[in-house]
Specification:
217 residues, Rossmann fold, 4-stranded parallel sheet
């Protein structure tokens, strides 16, 4: 699997963190991670996202050509570059947003999304449709570091409770920064409802898209 | 994983066939399969389905109580008994219909569904919404045996082509009988578009629902 990180990272620990989560979950999966240049803080607004799309497309094409990946997984809930990549590569392209929203739907409950953006990301809204009952952002949480502090975790728990008050029976973590800090098991313990992690669930679907049917031959 | 077959089978080969597909695909998964009584031909019409629902609910409750399963997977695209089971058990309940439709959505193409029923199954229609561009049934195909003959496979290929003519870029196999005869790789070779198998994709999501977040602790 070729995994595209949409933040720029020199540190291999950061670059490979999402791939490692997936390899721990799916024993026979091998993930190769690469990142785009020039976005050290990730895609934190729509302008950054617009600038990143051609870079994501170029990187995906290179990974298909040079590394022979069976699938490309764009590890960002905004699915940046996913439609554009599908036009130009021959392997399946999975985005963390539409894929994790599809997984959330399969649990049959109204879904509440927790994000660090104020705006509702289009792939999540499109897939969930009327099953999306709310979109919340924890207050005072600006960066991944804030997610790791005790105070940040309290803010996130409160935002999750606001979603449940709106009727959510499933929480979708609508930012892969939540995956980096491994928030899902913590929040599931706190809220006692299923919490969908975007990297694990999206990567799992990418694994199926790449090799699932081969297991049946 | 507790897997519920909605046809009655004495033969362990038949009973365990879907579980074996999943175990071959996910190495560290253990599947326990059980079936309901009194439906030797499966749920081939709506009256059979109605009669089966209380049996599915009772069986799922027994599997939770006696076997300690982490998740229940109803291996039928009609999701029979899934909403009712969710009311009475504490583990996640995944149905092959809504789950495989969620996986199909993550590929970002209009979806065509291939089934052996004339009527569109509600969980597929609900999850896919306007992404569902067609529902086709191969002519002269009545039973699983028909699916395995050379002629049956030609009929299925033709039905798949009719879906592509309607704009489908992904084919969802909307009957788990297609999984039993391992149709997905055959059809993918013939049609050159992704073909979503309901047992593999639904079972994969059930695996995530049961143990996914545990891998992050």
């Amino acid at each position: 699997m070729g995994l595209i990180r949409v933040l720029s990272a020199d540190d291999p620990e950061i670059l490979n963190s999402h791939g490692r989560l997936l390899e721990a979950f799916i024993p026979n999966l091998k993930v190769m991670s690469q990142c785009i240049e020039g976005h050290p803080k990730g895609l934190w607004n729509e302008e950054e996202e617009r600038q990143a799309i051609p870079k994501i497309v170029r990187l995906g094409q290179e990974m298909e050509r040079n590394e022979g990946v069976d699938v490309l997984f764009v590890s960002c809930v905004a699915d940046p570059g996913v439609p554009e990549l599908r036009e130009v590569v021959s392997v399946p392209v999975i985005g963390a947003g539409s894929a994790s929203a599809g997984v959330a739907l399969s649990l049959g409950e109204p879904v509440g999304a927790l994000s660090i953006t104020d705006w509702i990301l289009p792939p999540v809204a499109e897939v969930l449709g009327k099953a999306l009952v709310g979109w919340e952002r924890p207050t005072h949480v600006q960066t991944t570091l804030d997610l790791m502090s005790e105070e940040g975790r309290e803010e996130i728990t409160r935002a999750g409770r606001r979603l449940m008050d709106k009727g959510a029976g499933v929480i979708l973590l609508a930012c892969t920064g939540f995956s980096t800090v491994r928030l899902a098991p913590f929040l599931e313990d706190r809220l006692r409802v299923p919490v969908i992690d975007p990297v694990l669930s999206g990567g799992l679907i990418a694994y199926y898209a790449a090799v699932g049917n081969e297991a049946m031959r």
